[in-house]
Structures are given as structure tokens and as C-alpha cells.
Amino acid sequence: MKLGKTLLWIVAAVLVLGGGYYIINKNKEKQQKEVEIVASKLDEIAVNTAKLEYKDLSADFMVNGNFEPIQQMTFPSEMSGRIINVMVKEGDYVRVGQTLATIKKDAIEVDMTQAQNNLQNAIADNQRFENAFKTGGVTKQQVDNSRLQLKNARAAVEAQGLRVRDTNVKATISGVINTRFIEPGSVVAPGTQMFEIVNVSRLKLKVAVNESEIVNLRVGQNIKVLASVLPDDEFVGKLTFIAPKADASLNFPVEIEVSNNNKLKAGMYGTAVFSTAGDAAATKAIAVIPATAFVNGVSSNTVFVVENGIAKITKIVSGRVIGEYVEVLSGLKEGAEVVTSGQINLSDGEKVRIVK
């Protein structure tokens, strides 16, 4: 009887231990799966997305660029010497032919005096040879040599005269002294930078236009121009240049000349607004994605496309910027889903979790 009870207790203990072991293992497996799910979610980067879609948008488009001076020159020295005087300072307006600085010319004037003396001797020698040749006292070759020496002496005087004049440094364009590189006492050599002069009475807005729109533009067109720092002002520019060849991004450089009202500065950001007013097709369905989808700006032509939870970096060809959207010319299929925020944390091939 006691043996039976003992066996019963042993069997019960084994069942309890086995059941406990089974439960512990099941809990461990469940916990492991939960950890894997959490880890998987941690590996996924949260992003917002938008799909390529067709919108009926105005075909008017805007292109950003920078204002540049209509003329600018880094003014170099044409001779060697020491600067005696500088007549202008940064910010001064100068005109063509105005003297900006003077270079020491003592040694040059000595050379000039010597050249003039040599010229007088050459004139006298040539006269004697000419007279002697008439009486047969000298040969034709001697007369020719005296004439050559006279020409060389005159050329030497002219050369020294140019050097003397070059000691007065004169402006070759009108504009404002943007930078002065020299001071009285500076020693300059040919090619030494002395002044940077910029003419900002008019400015050039340089932008790049894609191939689908360049065909509609003509030199001489009036273009509306905006400046980001002057939101209440509107300018009218004239299209003065269209590049005959596209750049590496398949866009065509364009220049728009704008009269300056002293508010605009070279280097400011500007926007050219190309209008299609009067065009029956001015509004049409256009394939677009949000401008925020582009990695490092629209000019990169690079977006992340989400496919099966994976972000793939993709090169596309973008067109016009129309408000908050950018036209897509090629590289994406209709319905393609692009990342619009969270790109800073992404690299090609990473898992993503779309946040609605």
C-alpha cells in the first residue's frame, strides 16, 4: 500500500515538473517572438510618403537663381612699381577713365628722357645720311640703317610714353569699388589685383530651365522677377540670353536682365516667374510629387521610392516647380510611393514603416 502511494506521488511530481518545464519553455518562446517583433519594429524607420499623381495645375512655373552684376572686373596692374596714392575707397562709385591710383614713375621718367635723347640723335644721324646719299657719300644700305634706327628710336619713345601713362591707374568700367586690395606704399607687379569693380545699375538673374519649357522662351521676353528678401516688391526683367547647349543636368542656363532700384544686391536669391497666360493649354494634368520628396533639394533629382516596405533610392528627371509640387518627366511610374519626410535617416535598401 505504501509502495503504491509512493509511486503515485513520484508520478505526480514528474507531471508537475514536466508541466512547469513545458509552460516555462512556451513562455520563453512567446517572449522571444515578442522581442523579435519589437526589434523588427525598431529596425524600421518611420517615414511619411506620398504617391505620384496627376494634378490639373497651372503650367506657369517658377525657377530660382542668383542675382549677379551686369559687369564686374578684378582690376589688375599692368606694370611694376610702388603705389604712391590711392584716390578711391570701397563703396565709391567710379566712371570709365577715372584715375583710381598712381604708381611711382621717377625711374620711368628717366627712361623717357633717355629715349627722347636717343630719338634726337637718330633724327640728326638720319638727316646727315640722307644728305650724304644725295652726293654719293654713303651707300643705300647705310641710309636704310639710319632710317631703321630712327623708327626704333621713335617706337622706344612711344613705349616709354605708355609706361608713363600707365602709372595713372584708370577705371575701364563704371561701377562701385567692391574691394580695394592695395594701400599707399604697396608694391605691385603686372597682374597684381588692385580693385574689384562691380556695376549693379542692372543685374542679371541666372536660372536654369528644363528642355520641355525652353522651347517656349524667346530672347526679349518680359519676365516677372521676385526677390526673396523683398516679398512686397515685384520687378520686370528682360530675357537676354538662352544657352544653346544644356548643362550636365539637362537644363539650359538663362539670363534675365533686371533694372536695379538700389534695393537689389548682387548675390541675393531671386525667382523668375515664367507665365503662360493666354495659352489654351496653360492648365493641364501634370505628373507631380511633393517638393519635399527630393533628397538634398529638387536639383538633386533623387528620391526614395518605397516598395514592399523597403526604401530604394531612385534617380528621376524633374521638370517645373509648380507651387509645392515638382513635375516628374521620367523615372517614376504612376502610383509610385515616395518618401516625403524622414529621408535624413534613410539609406538605400532600408526597411521603413509608413506613418499615416
UniProtKB/TrEMBL annotation:
- Report the transmembrane regions from the record: 6-24
Q: Which residues form the CusB-like beta-barrel domain?
A: 205-276
Pfam families noted in UniProt: Beta-barrel_RND_2 (PF25954), BSH_RND (PF25917), YknX_C (PF25989)
Cellular component (GO) terms are:
efflux pump complex
Molecular-function annotations in GO: efflux transmembrane transporter activity
InterPro entries (alphabetical): Beta-barrel_RND_2 (IPR058792), MdtA-like_BSH (IPR058625), RND_pump_MFP (IPR006143), YknX-like_C (IPR058637)
Which domain of life, per UniProt? Bacteria
Entry annotated with the keyword Cytoplasm: no
Domain YknX-like C-terminal permuted SH3-like: where?
288-353
Coiled-coil parts of chain: 105-132
Domain annotation Multidrug resistance protein MdtA-like barrel-sandwich hybrid: ranges? 76-198
Q: Does the keyword Transmembrane helix apply?
A: yes
Keyword field: Coiled coil, Membrane, Transmembrane, Transmembrane helix
* PANTHER family from the UniProt entry: HLYD FAMILY OF SECRETION PROTEINS, MULTIDRUG RESISTANCE PROTEIN MDTA
Question: By its UniProt entry, which NCBIfam families does this protein fall under?
Answer: RND_mfp
Q: Which family does the record assign?
A: Belongs to the membrane fusion protein (MFP) (TC 8.A.1) family.
Protein name per UniProt: Efflux RND transporter periplasmic adaptor subunit
Its ancestry begins with:
Bacteria, Pseudomonadati, Bacteroidota, Flavobacteriia, Flavobacteriales
